[in-house]
């Protein structure tokens, strides 16, 4: 008897046209030239949830980012929802834990140079695109640990709503305002990342896609989809007052 293969995706919403799942951190959405050795992808797991039929990712989540991921179950729905995403008609909300006490709210309006998928093209000139991210501080904390020469270390939990969808936009924008996301190996602060990796026995990016609001491309129903962060994210959030995130993902 063949043992059933564990599926790391969790179904959040399904109908005749859409499949929405929660993707854990560390899982690629689909094959990438950067990670040619990888053999597991959200795309293949979503297909298994769709009785083996093709599914079509309509947006991306970086490998270290966890949270809501939308697949269309036919090409026409994928095309329509993709256009809605490009036009800004889909509202995305993320949670992030960042270094320092960031301002209470604001918009980061900072153009970003495109980052090609193929690293061999990084030396080529790349266009600069407009990029905007709204943020709101939800909570702050400080811990009595010296990490960068100060007797205490401060952190914020922030809600992020990007108006544009540039590659690594949230990570690059938070670095731009000097509040990098904890666990970000490329744009973060190594000492803080190492502290949390050692304290909690895991190394992960503290960024999670928690809400999506959009008009269904076929039924025109307004969908408001939510998914609480996974356990590894909530574990690190224990440095904050536990009342800031009352729920856990079922």
Automatic annotation (TrEMBL):
Residues 110-130 have a biased composition (Basic and acidic residues). It catalyses: uridine(65) in tRNA = pseudouridine(65) in tRNA. Residues 108-130 are annotated as: Disordered. PROSITE patterns: PSI_RLU (PS01129). Keywords: Isomerase, tRNA processing. PANTHER family: MITOCHONDRIAL RNA PSEUDOURIDINE SYNTHASE, TRNA PSEUDOURIDINE SYNTHASE C. This is tRNA pseudouridine synthase C.
